[in-house]
From TrEMBL:
One of its GO terms (cellular component) is cytoplasm. This is Amidohydrolase. It holds the Pfam family M20_dimer. It comes from Puia dinghuensis. Residues 1-19 form the signal peptide.
Length: 536
């Protein structure tokens, strides 16, 4: 397939540097077009995968059906799957190919508590009341990377291109619970570059520091003494008092933290019933800041306040990390390659039905008129942003443990347009678009861009060289990755077990059956879009 000139250039290049093949530009562009066409032909497959995972609606560390489905699909398509990596039963790593470069492709798979919602319906209408649901849109990302990988795998086989594809899931991303453990256990050691994909409402693959916070997630447990709460309260030591005093202490501490911090907690155990002095209680904190040192000092302050609360109540305190994420930093060379492909592919064609749903959802959630950059929020986006580098300043924000990978391997974070702008995030309304044509088209386009970028990475060794140069000489020149976890911190795989067990059987009735129904909307009998509730 390679022409004589490029073969000759390859030989000359090998003499000068090391053995690597230089491919002709026409050959590369041809391959990219073929990759894009091959992905586009899998429109049905993308829709089925997006809908299937939406219907499973599994919380972090309990992605049992999702992982079973994905690993079976990948095995059937020629990948070798290692299951249960890093001590996490629902994690896995799938490989195909041989030699370098080794390109890893990842996307999250878990969902949000109490976010069950019928797709395509612009008012609150849960599939199963109280159950979890894809109120972050993590049901769409695996279709993006898997259908991109399959198209590229075919082309690599036909054209004898060397290289390895590695596919992995972001398990328990909502708990930032897995990726630092993958890194700790060496799963990214021999990876040359990582493409991560995440649902968005616009195209975006910025490089540098996007302004996110990192975090540690820590559970503090207090151990006291039970007693009859009326008969002998003076003989009790309340663990709940310790939790409340810790929270009061932390809320005073807030005044003396930088404005970039975010911290929040939930009381996961507040005792059993009022007439028993609570002998056990626990509170779960997320401590977020913009850099490692500030996160560490928040964490230390939290531990001190917990010790103080234990002293005040004469209880015993212990704590355990549940999750962790570094603040993100993404690779310039990879972003530039990907952005060029985004420009080529552009936005999906939104229909009137898509726009009607988007506008109705924006009204439902009382969306702001503009986003944080001042861009209007009105329906679905179709205007492309420019490619941006590090933010000059950020007030802080959310976190994603992809950052722990991005500080170990050159990584890019692709946001593809598969959801509605202006929603709140982590909310049932964020699930409305996620098994509709909006998510299907956005994910398909995400897969096209990913496939084209993979061809770039497998045929242009200079991109990987530039990516490594940026990683070594810019990103990590002064900041070095220091994990928050040690080899003794286990992944918090027990989280969400009870909640998932409570709802799984009710949810099972609504699992998508693609052998009977064209789409999940069809299975649920939903007219797309349904904008108003039926008249009572
Ligand atoms: Zn996410």
């Amino acid at each position: 397939m390679r022409n004589l000139l490029s073969a000759l250039a390859g030989v000359l290049f090998s003499i000068g540097l090391r053995a690597q093949t230089i491919y002709d530009t026409t050959f590369i562009n041809n391959l990219k077009e073929q990759a894009r066409t091959a992905v586009a032909a899998k429109q049905k497959g993308v829709q089925e995968m997006v809908d299937q995972i939406f219907s499973y609606g599994e919380l972090g560390f309990q992605e049992i059906e999702t992982s079973k489905y994905l690993t079976a699909f990948l095995t059937k398509n020629g990948f070798t799957v290692e299951k249960g990596i890093a001590g996490i039963p629902t994690s896995w790593m799938a490989r195909w190919g041989s030699g370098s470069p080794v390109i890893a492709l990842g996307s999250d798979i878990d969902c949000i508590p109490k976010a069950s919602q019928k797709p395509g319906v612009a008012y609150k209408d849960p599939i199963v009341e109280g159950a979890p649901g894809h109120g972050e849109g993590h049901n769409s990302g695996q279709a993006v990377i898997i259908f991109a990988a399959l198209a590229v795998k075919d082309l690599m086989e036909k054209n004898h291109l060397p290289g390895t594809l590695v596919i992995w899931p972001g398990v328990a991303e909502e708990l930032v619970g897995s990726k630092a453990w993958y890194v700790r256990d060496g799963y990214f050691k021999n990876v040359d570059a990582c493409i991560f994909t995440h649902v968005g409402s616009a195209w975006n693959c910025n490089y540098g520091d996007p302004g996110m916070n990192g975090l540690v997630s820590v559970k503090f447990s207090f151990d006291g003494e039970a007693a009859h709460a009326a008969g002998a309260p003076w003989r009790g030591k309340s663990a709940l008092d310790a939790v409340e005093l810790m929270d009061v202490g932390w809320n005073f501490k807030r005044e003396h933290l930088k404005p970039t911090q975010r911290s929040h907690y939930v009381i996961t155990d507040g005792g059993d019933q009022p007439n028993v002095v609570p002998s056990k209680a626990s509170v779960w904190y997320y401590f977020r800041e913009r850099n490692y040192d500030d996160i560490s000092s928040m964490y230390a302050a939290g531990v001190n306040i917990a010790k103080g609360a234990a002293l005040m109540t004469d209880t015993r305190m212990s704590y355990q990390i549940q999750g962790t994420a570094w603040p993100g930093h993404f690779n310039k060379a990879l972003a530039q390659a990907m952005y060029a492909n985004i420009k080529k592919v552009g936005y999906p064609q939104w229909t009137d039905a898509d726009q009607q749903l988007a506008l109705a959802v924006q009204k439902l959630v009382d969306a702001p008129k503009t986003d944080l950059e001042g861009k209007p929020i009105h329906g679905l986006r179709s205007d492309l942003d420019t490619l941006k580098g590090s933010v000059p300043f950020s007030w802080g924000g959310g976190s994603d443990d992809i950052a722990d990978i991005s500080w170990n391997v050159p990584t890019i974070d692709l946001y593809y347009p598969a959801n509605i702008p202006g929603t709140k995030g982590h909310h049932w309304a964020d699930a409305i678009a996620m098994a509709t044509p909006i998510a299907h088209k956005g994910s398909l386009y995400g897969a096209e861009v990913t496939a084209m970028t993979l061809i770039d990475l497998f045929t242009k060794p200079q991109i990987i060289a530039d990516a490594k140069d940026y990683f070594n000489n810019v990103q990590t020149k002064e900041v070095k990755y220091k994990p928050f976890i040690t080899k003794d911190d286990p992944p918090a795989i027990y989280l969400n077990k009870e909640t998932m067990e409570k709802y799984r059987e009710q949810m099972r009735k609504y699992y998508y059956d693609p052998s009977k129904y064209k789409t999940y909307l069809e299975q649920l009998g939903i007219t797309y879009p349904t904008l108003t509730p039926p008249a009572k």
